[in-house]
What does this fold into?
Amino acid sequence: MKFLVCISNVPDTTTKITFTPDNKEFNKAGVQFVINPWDEYALTRAIELKEAQGSGTVTVLNVGEADTEPNIRKALAIGADDAIRVNAAPTDAYFVAQQIAAIAKEGAYDVILMGKESIDYNGFQVHGMVGELLGIPTVAPAMKLDMSGNTATLEREIEGGKEIVEVNTPFVASCQQPMCEPRIPNMRGIMTARTKPLKVVEPVGEGARTAVAEYALPPKKQGVKLIPAESAGDLIKLLRNEAKVI
Amino acid sequence: MSVLVVVECDGGEVKKSSLEVASYGSQVAQMLGTTATAVAVGEATEANLAQLGEQGISKVLYDAEPRLKDFVNGAYTKLIAAAAEKEGAQVIVLANSNIGAAVGSRLSVRLKASLATNVVELPKNDGGSFTVKRGAFSGKAFADVVLTGDRKILAVKKNSIEALHEAGKTAQVEAFSASLSDADFADAPKQVVMQDQAGGVLLPEADRVVSGGRGMKGPENWHLIEDLAKALGAATACSKPVSDVDWRPHHEHVGQTGITVSPNLYIACGISGAIQHLAGVNSSKVIVVINKDPEAPFFKAADYGIVGDVFEVLPKLTQAVKELN
It folds into this structure.
């Protein structure tokens, strides 16, 4: 079985977000980039399923410029077999989805996995766009994925519960916890990752359908109003009479 | 040309987030000088759908096919696309829910539309460009996004717009069929399992949330969180370390890699306020922090705070709410 796992290169979760002086772009200076945490679930589960089947391949795909390669190598160190980088900045979800769909079609992948969303753009869009472009089912967001032959059983999160869904390959799933325990690379993995193939291809398709005009930070808080612990009940009165939220 | 609103229903009732979406859609319609039609998905009653008139909806399309009771991506996408074509919809508005995201992303390709999710404000439509404000960087920032396609799909974040209530106005409910075939239900769920929600309030839909962290010291103490939540009519939630050690289920985990919430009131008990947790809650209207450590970073993001022991403070709060009621 051929797995395609799509990963994004995102600012580390502890990053303090700032923008360039014109507010047009994220300020990358001094920021460490990591594999999108949601994508780590997709990557690890694909590797686990491949190992359980005893055959198959896991290909990592990233749409990004050359500076994303350290994280692609990290994905290879975690256990992916090979990687493809589409040499372009990921301008919007539709642009990215077109790249993934083109690669998925050409490589005839059986299972296409990715994280639920990226922690920077938070689109939660790419999975469905890829599914629609390829005309195959999408399950989003998936909390569990098991395979039996060409049939996958997934648990999909719904508000207040879950749905059990069965689909046949090929399909797309966007992943979230508690799908698996994301793996970290070991020394052997890091050594072998250096020699695994990483193919760079040029983008295809149309341009983006959305563009960011400007970024802004949320308004600063006014400061905390402290209530003494011994008169904690006064908080409730403030929430009703002053904040008017109860 | 019109605005189409996707309304999610559950057990015959229109979801609260869909009332907000309907209000949003009717205001966009007004802005564009047109009307807003809704298409309902899930289990709905005609009386409840007619009440969408109070949110400014003039007409509701409803396909009573019983298999549409639970979410089926293929069938829902086809149904909404058919409704959009019938109405000549230029703008489609849906909730930024799991259903909204799953369907919206497929629809955007099918209808060749620009898609913006996580939308937090009404659009600006001046000088020929259509711009919406959306949450980005896991709630740590906002982005103004220009939608360049002829058609636009907007997924509106919960609690970011007040629902309209124009008493007495009703919408016309019209039977609608998208001629769905068995193939459209190929990805129908085999089983739907509902989880117990403390106090019966769903976290993603909640107006108020009471959340606990490692400071609660163990799952056996969670009754203190639940008691306050019950008194307030709130949902319960937790921080990532708490769900990681299985004190609480994963569906209660709020934060950057968990559920992002934006309630009117978020009460954090024994949570220090790591940047990843803040990212999931900082669009809450009012944040209350209870922590015995006065240096806990969460106090910087809070509107109200109590420096004290959660085990002493929580029963006092619950008692005070009961007295108020």
Observations:
- The CA atoms of residues 10 and 43 of chain B lie 5 Å apart.
